[in-house]
Amino acid sequence: MKKNYLFTPGPTHVPAEVALAEAQPSIHHRTPQFSKIFKELSEDLKYLFQTKEGDVFTLASSGTGGMEACVVNVLSKSDKALVLCAGKFGERWNEICGTFGVETVTVDVEYGNAVDPSVVEAKLNENKDIKVVFATQSETSTGVLHDIEAISKIVKKSGALMVVDTITGIGIHKFPFDEWGVDIAVTGSQKGCMLPPGLAFVCVGPNAWPAIEGSDLPKYYWDFKKMRKSLKDATTAYTPSVSLIVAMKKAMDMIKEEGIENVWNRHARIGNATREGVKALGLKLFAGENASNVVTSVVAPDGVDIGAIIKKLRDESGVTFTGGQGEMKGKIFRIGHIGYVDDFDVIVAISAVEKGLCESGFPVELGKGITAAQKALVGNG
Amino acid sequence: MKKNYLFTPGPTHVPAEVALAEAQPSIHHRTPQFSKIFKELSEDLKYLFQTKEGDVFTLASSGTGGMEACVVNVLSKSDKALVLCAGKFGERWNEICGTFGVETVTVDVEYGNAVDPSVVEAKLNENKDIKVVFATQSETSTGVLHDIEAISKIVKKSGALMVVDTITGIGIHKFPFDEWGVDIAVTGSQKGCMLPPGLAFVCVGPNAWPAIEGSDLPKYYWDFKKMRKSLKDATTAYTPSVSLIVAMKKAMDMIKEEGIENVWNRHARIGNATREGVKALGLKLFAGENASNVVTSVVAPDGVDIGAIIKKLRDESGVTFTGGQGEMKGKIFRIGHIGYVDDFDVIVAISAVEKGLCESGFPVELGKGITAAQKALVGNG
User: Fold this and answer.
1) What pLDDT score does A380 carry?
2) Chain B residue numbers touching A100 (CB-CB < 8 A)
3) For the whole prediction, is pTM greater than 0.90?
4) Which domains does chain B have, with CATH numbers?
5) Cβ–Cβ gap B28/A22 under 8 Å
6) Are the CB atoms for A350 and A283 separated by under 8 Å?
7) Which residue in chain B has the smallest CA separation from A66?
């Protein structure tokens, strides 16, 4: 018997209640029965994004599709955008803008670091014609969290629009859409929402609409104007992913019952305990003080074949960690802790890290990591 | 107790085995465990499309997303396309081409009719510069089936590429991709594949690649070149809809066990029996001799409020038919019979038609429709 432990920054474990909701009998999407669920879900999603004024659209796509939707709706050909790049997902914004022929200016920081809000301010002062700023709340490729509140304040002052990839942020880190003055935010279903992948959610605030109305980039499937019109009728422009939407309603019931602040606090506690466990084993955190509560990225110790350890844990013990992506491959490993995750999951994760390192011949004091995690979780440490 | 009977042209009923596969524990998509399933599924999909030379891509989107993907990959800005329009879905090809600034010529026929292959030939002769022809195998909005074999032969002769929306065709009507010389075909998961909506499958043949390689329309999420590269590594460019993919593998196991020819024959038998049942009640088929085995569209009899009948059957008896779309609203009703459907479903569907009409005050001889259907299904009629 080998249980399945998924410590990845998405997909995450899906609660059985949610999985069974997904498996419920099909309903047709052009019926009042579906519209009732969809309408309730769309209201719940406003709670998730902490918005009263924004509309939240549900897209049948992965998060990347949601990002493309943001770009083609908010920008026009002659616009200039500022993209904040601290890893693979920031770079994705830039790639999508480039695909649609939009000129970009970037702020690039070394992997493992966060973009400094004051650098954003300087760039905006240098480039008065920036129309939209694209940011990433949690840069999953490096485990770094950005200070969206501070960045958003600066962007607002400049008159530009603020678009945030919060794919691994929503339902994990605090993200009050209205309060922070964000204009568009996008997330995916397989992260804080505890669902399988296949849905993207895009929250669009009132200030973004003039740019959307005037946008001349080509769009059909991704058209926000059509989505807004359909949402008013409690439906979608094209066939929605019915089973995932029904499941998402169940996941939202769970999130509402816990309360969004408690969800954020849980992730904060779990992220902190994971970092304490890792540090107690003498390992180095890759993201340092900018570490998110999404994923703990750890520098692979010298002389260790981290790829082999990840593979052995996954194939022999059922524990899935992820390695680094792109240029980070072989240099870091990542412990995800989002969505359907509780305190005991941290103990299991750190236990698996101890086991993997020990069995590879790396000197670890067994119990030291899980003890540190336990102290961080339970007592005053 | 009210059972759920879904007689719509998608979403269709999902077999319990498939729904439960969808509800299985999450696996991470960047693992050999996922790649094994995805590789097997991608091979199974070649069987579904009856292709040896084509590649089948799995997209996280609805069928409309798959259609947009075809347009932006195969066309370039300066190209001219021919679009065959016999209803709402043919018109959708034209709308998408227009969105991306591609010039189109159309063949338009009155709703309820099919495009005549000889008219396609004439149009291609008049417009020697047509690069791509967009067709619809089964026009779900009217219930009409097109002769893709004949049209494809004509298109091939002209040197243009043949792109087919077979969203309600694949797994229902005969569609041998290689044998008919189709270049690109797209389907969705919630039709013949017996899945919930949320996946599109696009089959790309070898002759389409030069156009794809040379295409200058903007694409990121929909990029076939990236999809082909990822497919070679048994993965996807962006996060796939893992739960739907696992479910689709189960659905393909069922389709392979039945055999694709038997799947086509089953739909032919069921489509025929439905039409016989409807005709026996004195009702008129909207699509006449061009009727598909996907959906039986029936002219609403004079003096009957068809919308009210559909609503009552759905809300009180759990039986979902669909009305007409767009300008067909109130004029027809549609009985879907695709995917997870057997002979007894026809009896239930016709029984519900009898019940709905009778209760509305329309004169029907109870039992006449189901008897005709029964005779068509069981004996020599």
Assistant:
1) 56
2) 218, 220
3) yes
4) 16-258 (3.40.640.10), 260-378 (3.90.1150.10)
5) no
6) no
7) B221
